[in-house]
Specification:
Elements (H helix, E strand, L loop, with lengths): L2 H8 L7 E9 L6 E9 L2 E6 L6 E4 L4 E4 L1 E6 L8 H9 L3 E6 L2 H7 L1 H10 L6 E6 L17 H10 L4 E7 L2 H5 L3 H11 L4 E4 L6 H9 L4 E2 L5 H9 L3 E5 L7 H4 L11 E4 L5 H6 L3 H10 L4 H7 L2 H7 L15 E4 L7 E6 L2 E5 L2 E2 L37 E7 L6 E7 L2 E2 L2 E2 L7 E7 L7 E7 L7 E4 L8 E5 L2 H14 L2 E6 L2 E7 L11 H17 L7 H6 L24
Parallel strand pairs: 1-4, 1-5, 6-7, 7-8, 8-9, 9-10, 11-12, 12-13, 18-23
Antiparallel strand pairs: 1-2, 2-3, 5-14, 14-15, 15-16, 16-17, 18-19, 20-21, 22-23, 22-25, 24-25, 24-26, 26-27
Helix pairs in contact: 3-4, 12-13
Length: 570
């Protein structure tokens, strides 16, 4: 598209390719709703006014038009959907642009995984910008499937200069504060390319926060309280309010938003699974819920559109105005924020929550399976934990509902014949982490708070190294669950009394399914039903389980992969 062609349409000398008539248009700049017609040409908005003719005419009969929604930070892998199926799901709910950090698949497959994500989303009706993973591995305490340094980033920046928009969340804030040469080198590379540096700094404040921001890190999605968000905002950070499947910060952090500061807030989903997308929505859910909680609708929509576009320098997104991309949503009203129609690049791509076109994309050779599960041989006897002398205290990972945070606690445990066992009455079960990349071994520990009482659950989703995690009360069931995941090439399974109750196949790096949204959602429902048979009362069990290994959220509990299990006691 040439600029002079767009000018000709704006001046009425050329017919728009699409004319949207009788619309009420939310202006995110003025905060007002204006009545008029929208002239579209190519992928852009040529003008707004009294245009009367177009090659195609769509009469909205007074319905409301708002900009397409933008997710400031997410991991496609956490949806358990392939990139294209994820795009189909969220575009139908009004998300037209996402900033995706593929550090999950990068920790499994390295550059091959990142390139897969880029190619899989090339040419589809969703703007997918990439935050190049900064932490592969996320810490030195993990065994991941790859290691990416500055030298790996240079070539990708040159190959995909427009798709790579930022350095992905800098989770290793300890590395920043200690001026780690490799990490600082990555930051220097991206800042000299005028790319954003995304943050991840839970709990940082005072001088530590100042030092972290000194590394040109200007955003954060990990604020734990209103006070933390306000301090980060006061020091120049863009605050991404997160509402995922496990970490739910929207209700808490909205209390920090007001009319004088809301332009420095954005919305992100971070980690949201397929079932939640299907049941509740995506960024549209955050807008709708914010309005229900009393946030001014214009402020809520700005946080989901223009605020994020301006932070990332997306000059033609986030608004309905001349020269902007024609990414728009049609609503009946602001209060219910029910998306009736979605325009992407001037085309209608969804009506009433259903896609109207195929999401084939540019590349036709996207694989249906990628990577494999590689673990050491083992048996149930290898999972036993022996007590040391008369000492009966062990370190236990304590989880928290609706949070990624874990605590390290010392707890007295029962021991039979010098074997430390699980305790369902206190919600303490055994946890085993297998190195799934190099089969170097496994480690055994205990975790409290998952909210189930029998059987075993295994998953190949384990942020951020994505090693194979098994939790349970029965060593035989735990062995069965681990072997099921190995045999299917990655996924999630629930086992009890020697039987497999459910499984979700995730053949794409052990993280994503090659099935459609509805199939994956049904599999998640079936798995939730199976978890209830295990006595599970935790509605976010699967997402919470996937974060137990995460070493970059306080309080991290380090583990060492060993061929024989050990236990710490005092």
């Amino acid at each position: 598209m040439r600029i002079k062609d767009l000018i000709a349409v704006a001046l009425g000398r050329t017919k728009p390719s699409v004319l949207i008539k009788n619309a009420r248009i939310l202006n995110v700049f003025s905060g007002k709703i204006q009545h008029g017609n929208i002239a579209l040409y190519g992928k852009r908005i040529a003008g707004i006014g009294d245009y009367q003719e177009g090659e195609e005419v769509i009469d909205l009969k007074g319905m409301l038009v708002v900009p397409g929604l933008i997710d400031a930070h997410l991991h496609v892998e956490s949806s358990m959907l392939s990139p294209r199926e994820f795009a189909r799901a969220v575009t139908a709910r009004g998300t037209t642009t996402v900033i995706a950090d593929p550090h999950e698949i990068a920790n499994v497959l390295g550059l091959r995984g990142i390139e897969y994500m880029i190619k899989a989303t090339e040419g589809i009706p969703l703007n997918v910008y990439i935050g190049f993973p900064s932490s592969v591995p996320s810490t030195e305490f993990e065994t991941s499937g790859a290691r990416l340094g500055v030298e790996d980033m240079i070539g990708f920046l040159e190959k995909y200069p427009t798709r790579i928009i930022s350095l992905g969340e800098v989770m290793n804030f300890h590395g920043v504060l200690n001026a780690d040469n490799d990490l600082i080198g990555k930051i220097e590379l991206f800042r000299h390319k005028y790319k954003k540096i995304d943050g991840h700094s839970p709990g940082l404040s005072g001088r530590d926060l100042d030092a972290y921001i000194d590394a040109f890190i200007r955003s954060d999605h990990e604020s734990l309280s209103v006070e933390e968000a306000e301090e980060k905002l006061s020091k120049g950070m863009q605050i991404f309010i997160r509402e995922g499947s496990a970490a739910k910060d929207l209700e808490k952090l909205l209390k920090a938003v007001n009319t004088t500061n809301h332009m420095f807030f954005s919305f992100c989903t971070d980690d949201r699974d397929a079932l939640d997308i299907l049941k509740q929505g995506h960024v549209d859910y955050m807008v709708r819920r914010s309005i229900e909680m009393g946030t001014d609708p214009v402020m809520a929509i700005r946080m989901a559109t223009i605020n994020t576009a301006r932070y990332f320098g997306l000059r033609s997104m986030g608004a309905i105005a001349p020269g902007y991309k024609a990414d728009m949503l049609v609503l009946e009203d602001l209060e219910t924020f029910s998306v009736k129609m979605v325009f992407k690049d001037s085309k209608v791509v969804a009506i009433d929550g259903k896609p109207v076109e195929d999401f084939k994309g540019t590349y036709s050779d996207i694989p249906a399976a990628l990577g494999k599960i590689n673990i050491i041989d083992f048996n149930a006897g290898d999972l036993k934990v022996r007590a040391k002398g008369n000492r009966r205290k062990v370190r236990v990972i304590r989880t928290k509902r609706d949070s990624l945070l874990t605590d390290q606690v010392l707890m007295k445990v029962d021991a039979e014949k010098d074997l430390v066992t699980s305790d369902s009455d206190r919600d303490i079960c055994k946890i085993v982490i297998f190195d799934r990349h190099k089969a170097s071994g496994f480690s055994v520990g205990f975790v409290q708070g998952l909210g189930f009482k029998r059987g075993a659950v295994a998953t190949s989703i384990g942020h951020d190294a994505h090693n194979l995690c098994v939790v349970g009360y029965n060593d035989a069931d735990m062995c069965l669950a681990a072997r099921v995941i190995k045999n299917i090439g990655g996924g999630i399974t629930v086992c009890m009394n020697g039987k497999v109750l459910s499984k979700i196949d995730l053949p794409i790096a052990g993280l994503m399914s090659n099935s459609d949204l509805f199939t994956v959602a049904d599999q998640i429902r079936a798995t939730n039903d199976a978890l209830r048979k295990l006595g599970c009362t935790n509605g976010n069990f699967l997402m919470q389980l996937s974060f137990i290994q995460l070493a970059v959220i306080p309080q991290p509990v380090s583990y060492t992969h060993l061929t024989l299990p050990t236990i710490c006691s005092v």
